[in-house]
Amino acid sequence: MVPGMREENSFDQLADRCRRDFPLLNQVVDGRQVVYLDSAATSLTPEQVIAEIRRFYTEVGANVHRGKHYLSEQASNDLEEVRGKVARLTGFRSNEVIFTANCTASVNIVATGLRLNREDVVLIPVDSHHSAMLPWLNCAKVIHIPVDATGAVDMERYQRLLFETAPKVVVINHCSNVSGMYAPVHEMARLAKEKGVITVIDAAQSIGHRPVVSEAFDFVVFSAHKMLGPTGLGLLCGRYEHLKALQPATFGGGMVDWVDLDHFVVRKLPYALEAGTPNIAGVYGLGAAIDYLTGIGFDAVAAHDQAFGAALVRETYGRPSLRVLGPDEHADRGGILSLTIDGVHNLKQVAQIMSDAHGVMCRTGHMCAQPFIDQHTADEVLRISGYVYNGSSDIKAVFSALDATLDAIGVGV
User: Fold this and answer.
1) Strand 363-365, strand 381-385: pairing
2) CA distances from 185 to 241, 287, 294 (A)
3) 269 phi and psi angles, rounded to 5 deg
4) What is the largest CA-CA distance in the chain?
5) Pairing mode, if any, of strands 256-260 and 263-266?
6) Is residue 40 over pLDDT 60?
7) Which of 98, 333, 357, 409 pairs as cysteine with 236 (C-beta 3.0–4.6 A)?
8) What CATH fold (topology level) applies to the domain 7-45+297-408?
9) CA 322 to CA 341: how far, in whole Å?
10) pLDDT tens digits, one per residue of 213-234
């Protein structure tokens, strides 16, 4: 908790400070100002990030590492400066930071680059995002780490699996995009490293709220678009010796030092894993997003995340038809709430009415975590997720819209 900031209004203070920076929140739907509560899918973009992307296109515009003219040098220097910001955020070195297309691409680069076979075991929590699960299902033997009804990892079973299965890789989901539950990622990684197991940390849902830094992390993957940055940009951070051991998945310009008709020489890291023109404008935007969050202070961002999540859970009290997936308000959870509604099987209709009639944007579906959701419900879920620009007024708005929608379709809460 931020010193001197009471729990019940901590997220309001930060939200009031941030809202003016997000132009999309001024948009009106059917006469109602937008209430955006789908940040677990994609966060909104502040004006500072938009301005930096605009600066690239209006003042620089050139490709990176493709020439020695002034504009190319400027673009190259700016890109490497952002690479350094990512390194400081994650605890890796600059040459251990790889720019990719998205978090999915980052996981695939590791999964294919390790050259595993069908006998190699990979441990993955059952609440993992499909993007953290499918690349391993495609190339190795996946064994799922159980989580309980609250979304907490079964640590006793996890330790037994480390001993019994001799895994090559452990994939750790730092924060569930369904339950909002934070896993004990440092302890899980430490136990894996004691067994000599490679650790891959999926920080897509957490990096914009809590930096994840540990020597026990071999790889950390995440996306810019969940931390106030642009879409189309992912990050792969890896220890040098592990990155060097990866077989590149993509070959082409930018990742070679020399090419003749039957031979080529791959560049040193990080460029060996960055074939082709990167999302340069996206990198500019990511740098501004990191600056924005650093300017707020990650202690304040984390406190908002925790307080907002607890407030979401509290709002469900007294609504007996709502079934929450995940922990209660006292658990280590983020600002994410997924729920089902007794007697309602078409949650898409609920979300559409909330959007079109009330201006409240949230998500329904399996959240790209279908195995986990299928363990708890035969239906989809409705997910509410906030970020630094959301406060108590947004919580009141979403539950007021939900109450009115259920009343309109004849379901009491």
Assistant:
1) antiparallel
2) 22, 26, 22
3) -65, 150
4) 72
5) antiparallel
6) yes
7) 98
8) Aspartate Aminotransferase, domain 1 (3.90.1150)
9) 5
10) 899 999 999 999 999 999 999 9
State phi, psi for 66 to the nearest 5 degrees: -125, 10
Side-chain-side CA neighbours of 394 within 13 Å: the count stands at 29
Q: Residue 85 belongs to what H/E stretch?
A: helix 70-90
Q: Which residues, in sequence order, are CB contacts of 113 under 8 Å at separation 6+?
A: 245, 246, 247, 248, 249
Q: How far apart are CA 36 and CA 208, in angstroms?
A: 17
pLDDT at 373 over 90: no
- Is 368 annotated in the active site? yes
36-46 mean pLDDT: 97
In whole angstroms, what is the distance from residue 278 CA to residue 274 CA?
7
- The arithmetic mean of pLDDT across residues 190-203, rounded, is 97
Quote the distance between the C-alpha of residue 28 and its chain's center: 27
**Is 49-294 a domain of CATH 3.40.47.10?**
no
- Decide if 310 contacts 182 (C-beta within 8 A): no
As a residue count, the chain comes to 413
Domain residue ranges of the chain, discontinuous segments joined by +: 7-45+297-408, 49-294
99-111 burial, b for 16+ CB within 10 Å, e for fewer? bbbbbbbbbbbbb
Please check whether residue 175 is in contact with residue 152, taking contact to mean a CB–CB distance below 8 angstroms: no
C-alpha distances in Å from residue 305, one per residue of 1, 209, 214, 266, 277:
10, 7, 21, 42, 35
Q: Look at the block and give the residue holding tokens 């379901």.
A: 411
Q: Beta-carbon neighbour count of residue 187 at 10 Å?
A: 15
Q: Of the residues 18, 139, 362, 368, which is catalytic? A: 368
Residue 57's Cβ-count burial label (10 Å; 0-12, 13-18, 19+) is: exposed
Q: Flag whether pLDDT at 4 surpasses 50.
A: no
